[in-house]
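Can anyone check this?
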Amino acid sequence: MSDPILKVRDLKRDYVISGGMFGKTKLLHAVKGVSFDVARGSTLAVVGESGCGKSTLARMLTMIDPPTSGTIEIDGETIDITSHGITREMRQAVQIVFQNPYGSLNPRQKIGAVLEEPLLLNTSMSAAERRDAALAMLEKVGLPPAHYGRYPHMFSGGQRQRVAIARAIMLRPKLLVLDEPVSALDLSVQAQILNLLRDLQDEFDLTYVFISHDLSVVRYIADEVMVMYFGEAVEHGTRDQVFSDPQHDYTKTLFAATPRADVESIKKRLAAKSAA
């Protein structure tokens, strides 16, 4: 792999679980020594069933939670929020898109303010410059200028996710973490959002860590795939390697239990549903 923008080494995250009034506390090992690189401009998909540690990994990469041990390096800079806190430069370097777009948007803010807020907090741009940048980004994600003055509740789920993606890339991050970004959307909208993400990646040279349990979207969007199982990375390779010749027993079981689906398959399923 050439020019990795993200380097993760032996990353661990433990949680202390209360045992109640009389029970003993327990230590939950959510992520157990994960290591990987992500090349600039590429997409690493992290897959696994619920509880495998993939969302905990996302929270550490986006500096929501500190790791218990291990290192995260982004574009040559080590991220250490425990010792040094979170700087403006760190926030600009990494952004996240969550599964539920409505929950991540302030219902009292108009969309224009939602998009301008990162610029207001992290740049010296004037009000006019921020407005122009927000309107330009709306166009990039396929929304008309008229949506600038609307509130989140006035949008569909797919439109709200477009807004969330637009906000996440307003600062031109080096790394974008997408935590189940299409799982809450209808099948017809999933394909649109996946195509949008690919277009934006090409235009802005974005690097993605794409968290998902859905192998259909992973097969469509990923360059590399890392499979997690009970906090461990049990398999990691190119998309074609992992899908065509899985090595770990858990990966084989996971793939066997999941019906094959890709964007074309999604379209066929929609056509069949409409004809029924």
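Reply from J.R.: I decoded it. Residues 4-275 form a domain with the Rossmann fold fold (CATH 3.40.50.300).
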